[in-house]
Design a protein that fits this description.
Strand order of the largest sheet: 1-2-3-5-4
CATH architecture: Beta Barrel
Family: Belongs to the EIF1AD family.
Strand content: 15-25%
CATH class: Mainly Beta
CATH superfamily: Nucleic acid-binding proteins
Order of helices and strands: HEEEEEHHH
Number of strands: 5
Domain S1-like: 17-90
Shape: globular
Biased composition (Basic and acidic residues): 107-118
Helix content: 25-40%
Structural class: alpha+beta
Keywords: Initiation factor, Protein biosynthesis, RNA-binding
Region (Disordered): 107-150
Radius of gyration: 24 Å
CATH topology: OB fold (Dihydrolipoamide Acetyltransferase, E2P)
Number of domains: 1
Length: 150
């Protein structure tokens, strides 16, 4: 199998291609930060934080960033690393989980639903330019307008 074919199959498996509810041993968690070596620190709906690992087949094909929601399955032999990533959720999967009342209430975020451009990248390298208009300019122009009318 070529690299392209493998990547296509891995992407379909890791991302949300089939709508099924999580099994009893699977949990929905949020990525807090990446720790390196395909390890990610996550937080559960109850506030517990631990490390999860990226399966070998997903490595170099799938990237997970801070704030993403993932589906994990616990691994019995882990002390520090307690689970392994099963699926990476996108907007459609989150919507499907919310419709079926499986989505944790602790992860409800009303702010993101109101933002139409949440997919746009915000460039933090540039400073925002803020221009201030002083009140004296507006009052002087109002006075000029009234003088011209007279």
């Amino acid at each position: 199998m070529s690299k392209v074919s493998k990547r296509k199959h891995v992407m379909n498996e890791a991302l949300w291609d089939d709508y099924e509810l999580p099994k009893d041993n699977q949990n929905i968690v949020k990525v807090v930060k990446s720790k390196g070596n395909n390890l990610h620190e996550i937080t559960t709906p109850i506030g517990e934080e631990y490390l999860v690992s990226m399966p070998t087949k997903f490595r170099k094909n799938i990237w997970v960033k801070r704030g993403d929601y993932i589906l994990v399955e616990p691994i019995p032999e882990g002390d520090k690393v307690k689970a392994e990533i099963v699926k990476i959720m996108n907007k459609d999967s989150i919507k499907f989980y919310k419709e079926n009342n499986v989505w944790p209430k602790q992860f409800e975020d009303n702010k993101s639903e109101n933002k139409p451009n949440e997919d746009l990248f915000e460039n933090t390298n540039r400073k925002n330019i803020i221009t201030y208009v002083s009140d004296s300019d507006s009052t002087s122009s109002d006075q000029r307008d009234s003088e011209q009318e007279n």
